[in-house]
Design brief:
The complex is a heterodimer of chains A (262) and B (97). With 262 residues, chain A is α+β, with helices and mostly antiparallel strands. Chain A contains four helices and 14 strands. Classes of the chains: A alpha+beta (262), B alpha+beta (97).
Chain lengths: 262, 97
Amino acid sequence: MLNLRRPLEFRYYSRRPTCSGNYTLVAKSSVIQPMNSNEPVHIHIAYGDRIDQMFVSYLTNSSQYTPKCQYGLSATSLNFETNGTTTTYTASDMCEGKANIWGPQNFIDPGHMHTMLLEDLRPSTTYYYRVGTDEHGWSNVHSFTNRPATKDEAIYMIAYGDLGLTPFEPGATSTAERLTARVLSTNVTCLLHIGDISYARGTGVHWDAFMTQIQPIAAHVPYMTGIGNHEYDHETGGDKDPSHAPGPGGFRPGWQEIIRFG
Amino acid sequence: MKWFVVFLCQLLVFIAADQHPNVNGAFGKRHTAGELMSPSGCDRASISPSVSTLDLSKTSFSNGDIVAVTWTPFSTVCKDDFIAIYSVDIPDSQGKQ
């Protein structure tokens, strides 16, 4: 179950007994909801500009309190604490439909994204951390190992593109499971997802599912991303594109031609 | 005028009778909506007389928890039946799109 920060219910629809015509609601569940709608979710880390930095991010349903990350050299002694900042966005910030249309299969309230910057980290050192607040609760303790001090040292990097979500991308779940097993069993330095990340295509809830899918990976190794055409192409609303891609109405390269001739 | 009053009374009786076929049938037996024959050929059996319950293994959860959904099997099922998760503020009638 995804914590979508709101009460939910299961419904069974059928076209019985003739199996034709309109669907009818034939059964539904009681309401099911998150134990804590401000539970820290979507926890992920990413490199900063300097070797001694690491960004730690998570999501809740609130911007009421200052987000925090407590960290240290042992899981039982999180001696350091740093505050973060919070941001969010709404449908009108998006370029075009269906991302800018409210609806359960379009734009949904994405919650509030919190980010802390850890600094003065030692190279090649394992840190333990948790995120949250005293008021809304804390995450489990996660860990990461910072990158080496020099570029001459060998690293272990996993790189891929086009992950997405099952069942829309059928191999996504098994790929994510293999990745999780690998990063938890091997000293992977970082991961590069070069683009076409969630394939949400404007369906906001897919981002919730995707970020939940990658948390076991992204909370443990820096999850560095590039942007693919599924993250940034648009035909209208280009004035809201933070990349300021060229074009009066938007930016959509001829991907089909690239595929055809490439 | 007299004939009009008689006609009006008959009309009211007819309408009143048509509103209660479900209470006592032609032979004094109660019927469900699905058992009634339709004078106009519509499939009244498709009108769900009641909504059954889907049972959940838990009603509060943490992100990523597995929740089991169980129910008493229906006598008939269609291959395109589906169960989905909805925000409670979405009307039942909009959930089948």
